[in-house]
Amino acid sequence: xxxxxxxIGQSVLISQLKQLALQVAGTDITVLIIGETxxxxxxxxxxxxxxxLRADRSFIPVNCGAIPSGILESELFGHEKGAFTGAxxxxxxxxxxxxxxxxxxxxxxxxxxxxxxxxLRVIETGEFxxxxxxxxIYSDARIIAATNKNxxxxxxxxxxxxxxxYRLRSVEIQIPPLRERGRDILLLAETxxxxxxxxxxxxxxxxSPDAVEMLMRYPWPGNIRxxxxxxxxxxxxxxxxxxxPEILERHLVQRNRYKSLVHDPARSEKNExxxxxxxxxxxxxxxxxxxxxxxHLVQTRPITPLLLPDTSASVSPFTTALRPxxxxxxxxxxxxxxxxxxxxxxxxxxxxALDACQGNKRKTALALGIxxxxxxxxxxxxxxxxxxxxxxxxx
Length: 395
Ligand SMILES: Nc1ncnc2c1ncn2[C@@H]1O[C@H](COP(=O)(O)OP(=O)(O)O)[C@@H](O)[C@H]1O
Ligand SMILES: [Mg+2]
What we know:
Layout: H1 12-25, E1 31-34, H2 41-50, E2 59-63, H3 69-77, H4 94-97, E3 102-106, H5 113-125, E4 127-129, E5 136-138, E6 142-147, H6 151-156, H7 162-168, E7 171-174, H8 184-200, H9 209-217, H10 223-237, H11 245-262, H12 269-300, H13 317-328, H14 332-356, H15 361-368, H16 372-381, H17 385-389
Helix pairs in contact: 1-2, 5-7, 8-10, 9-11, 11-12, 12-14, 13-14, 14-15, 15-16
């Protein structure tokens, strides 16, 4: 079977979804697929087509959100020569091309209201006219639509026609987000590891148990697409390395950092919290980058044991190990101070995140992009335990 017609997943939710998809595939019923971005809407639409009687005919995907509204109508229904400025030739639309095949209308929630009227007629009668023509054309295209929008809200706000919505969702299939799919996360990760090992001719050394735990706990806002991209960058950028939580964290944080740049910072409270979390994550990443750099510097300089200060003092092993190499330069003060303030920054970030999450450790760990275990360790190390524990709420 072709990759595009396979749905990977063994969770109960996915098994049920596959069963439903196979049930509807053999019919011509209109299907509305609902799911977050990257959750596999395209994959599911292709799966339905590939398992239908139309499998050997065209599957035509149309992204209604990516085509400017003025052009969408002529793209879907075609146009006659001279119908508008620039229409130098008559052209077939996607509906005509999908005759006896399947048309996949992605991001259907973005379809302009004027186009929706015409589209409703096509669903009901199969008939439409090219732009600039009054002649009716008939197309036997099976319609699959998809959206990541809350369609009830779009209907309530009058951005989407109610009659069209109910007509479209003759069958509605909801794809669960990746974070709700349990061990499918690992199954998919494994599949992508194999795929990219072959593609890039790299051997993957594996994930540490803590890193696996992190994969299972991460909320995957970009769903399977995000997981797939993560695996590819881990393979390519961390060549043949055993993946620890620290390495994983760095890659996940970079994704969050990028997201916080492209996200529209709408002024809702939720978004503000998101921005705070992103900043904390970013700050934490910078601290960890500097730490790594310093650690690397220490490792590449031999340390004379005799120069080590009294290790019974209450300094962290990291600080202790670093000090001699700076003292060698006769300038201990900056090193000590830098480290001190880095710890303070980290402590402050964690305390703030704990406050923002009302002491809920699971949420805090997610927000900071670290494992809960690491969070507990840091809370203990920084003596953050008492005040926050008393206000902890259950998730
Ligand atoms: N069940 C699945 N098994 C394997 N790969 C999948 C699965 N679902 C999605 N993918 C992969 O994840 C990425 C995003 O899927 P896609 O269908 O484009 O998501 P959406 O259309 O919901 O944004 C694609 O690379 C796709 O191949
Ligand atoms: Mg898609």
